[in-house]
Amino acid sequence: MAGEFHFTFEGRPVAAREGQSVAAALIAAGERCLRIDEAGRPKGVVCGIGVCWECRCSIDGKPDIRACMTPAQAGMAVRRQHGLNP
Amino acid sequence: MSRSVAIVGAGPAGMAAAIEAVARGARVTLIDEAALPGGQIYRQAHPSLPGADFADAGESARKAELLRRFRAAAEAIDYRPGTAAYALFGNGELHVAAGAATEVLRPDAVVLATGVREVAVPFPGWTTPGVMFAGGAQALLKAQRVPPGREAVVAGCGPLPLVVAAQLARAGVAVKALALLRPLRQMAADPAALWQGRRLVFEGMRYGRSLRQAGVPRLTGHVPVRALGEDRLTGVVLARVDAEGRPVRGSEHEIACDLLALNYGFAANSELVAMAGARMRRDPIGGWLPEVDEFGRTSLPGVFVAGDGAGLRGALVAEAEGGIVGAAAASGAGDDALRATLGDAFARRRQWAAFQRAVRGTLRVPAGLWSLAADDTVVCRCENVALRDIREAVAGGHRSLNAVKRNVRSGMGWCGGRICLPAIAALAELHGGVPPDAMMTPRPMVRPVTFAALAAQQKARSA
Q1: Residues with Cβ < 8 Å from B381, sequence gap 6 or more?
Q2: Is B254 helix (H, G, I), strand (E, B) or coil?
């Protein structure tokens, strides 16, 4: 499809379209758990609009990036954070 | 020299305020966190994304018209997308962050058009991935063109769950149930309000028709009491509740789903105005509101609030009020002179505010619903503070939200308490018998800002 590209989540390829957020592409790909929090609880997208910070991921080695507020880009490496570790 | 006005938020109130303020000759800076104008209700998809947003034609027309007016005025507006306001001080200093830098603005007037966020009621399992706010599920659908699940249960109170359930059904999501705390037809108790808002009533009826066509079961007086699944949602337990919102034993039944979209109403985004020191009051539907006059003036000189951030009344009130407040912030004219030029905006605000009074009646969360949380249910998600921690803090004599926060860290995490504060206030009241009338004191930053961005601060300048 025109405008479609890929990034990776936990090393797996994920398809996205220009203008989509990282969170939207992950949900479209069937991913729900985007982070393991400090207490070991799996966390996913909650507010979807940048308020709750629950969907924060490590993107290209930078921790604490909100997946819902970040446009997906080709070649990004997105990973789950585990507690405070990126 | 013309007045400088900084507006925070590019939803209906902020856009209308910016349009009116530049029309009156002010120099306007418009700060907004999103990449595109529209706020939450008129959230836009990236222009290259194909697909529909499944909104009612009436709403789409209002959105297109306001965005057209905004674009027509945009050349004169210093519009800054992707920018977050993270502090406002009593001297009118507004601190904003964009990318890797921060900046201090010193405008003559600040208009806060920061809108509302969704209110959540904690219950066992609500942190499971797949449990989302209904507005968040809607944002994925309308701005990202992504169905947020395959099989959904939509629940809560007020009109948003109905709208979101219908939009999900129109998008092909299997909506297994729409569970509403109370029937929307209770709004019929105020026929004058319904008449004022009849255009929105018809839109609601069209959403209702979509649900009937999709065969979506509607359960009134039911709420989710448990979310099932470990690292993803597998189902929801619904139960009937009594008039106080307490679940009725034996009424539980389970529905398999991978999305639970919840909305228990809205709380104002009022941290900035509270931080600056404006007089506040508790909103009975959740959160705290600044005291404002008819022109949106707070108790602080030069600080104005417009739209839902001054009390939930919906997009049409926000748009009318944005014009009123934008005019007041931009000009030094007296009240009578302002009123004379704003008759139409005042009339529109009155009309739609009448309807929204009926909407508000569907939104109050009854006390019993806060008892859904079990002792080990996480209430403050960021800091993993459970109900037990809050109950013990309150029992130990910590009777204000500030005192509870200092003891258990509730509200001190990434979201700054924006998700949990209505719940913590209600739970402190439920378990301590003391209504926490004072808001938890918001401190800078109300958004996380990196030290690098603070270090890269541009020198203060006049906006």
Answers
A1: A37, A43, A46, A52, A54, B127, B413, B415, B419, B420
A2: strand
Q: Residue A21 has what DSSP assignment?
A: B
What tokens were used for B424? 């913590």
Class of residue B60 by CB neighbours under 10 A (exposed 0-12, middle 13-18, buried 19+): middle
Interface of B to A at Cβ within 8 Å reads 33-35, 40, 45-49, 117-118, 127-133, 135-140, 144-148, 230-233, 258, 378, 381-382, 384, 413-415, 418-419, 448
Residues paired with B34 in a beta bridge: none
> Residue B245: CA atoms inside 13 Å, Cβ hemisphere, count?
20
Minimal CA separation from B3 to chain A, in Å: 32
**B320: helix, strand or coil:** helix
Confidence of residue B463 (pLDDT cuts 50, 70, 90): very low
B449: closest chain A residue by CA: A64
Q: Which pLDDT band holds residue B462 (cuts at 50, 70, 90)? A: very low
- For residue B45 the two structure tokens come to 């998809």
| Optimal mutation site among A1, A14, A20, A34, interface B, most CBs of chain B within 10 A | A20
Average pLDDT, chain B: 94
In contact, B73 and B22? CB cutoff 8 Å:
yes
CA distances from A77 to A9, A11, A22, A62, A63 (A): 6, 7, 11, 10, 12
* Residue at B140: amino acid letter: L
Place of tokens 């997208």: A45
pTM: 0.96
**Closest residue by Cα to residue B37 from B75, B8, B67, B60:** B67
Contacts of B109 (CB under 8 A, 6+ apart): B3, B4, B5, B6, B92, B302, B303, B304, B329, B330
Q: Are the Cβ atoms of B139 and A49 closer than 8 angstroms?
A: yes
Query: In this predicted complex, what is the ipTM?
Result: 0.97
Tokens of residue B208, six digits:
């209702």
Query: Is B357:B193 a contact under the CB 8 Å cutoff?
Result: yes
Note the pLDDT tens digit of each residue in B398-425. 888 999 999 999 999 999 999 999 999 9
Mean of pLDDT values over A24-39: 97
E strand or H helix at B153, and its extent? Answer: strand B151-156
What tens digit of pLDDT does each residue of B127-151 get?
999 999 999 999 999 999 999 999 9
H or E segment to which residue B68 belongs: helix B57-73
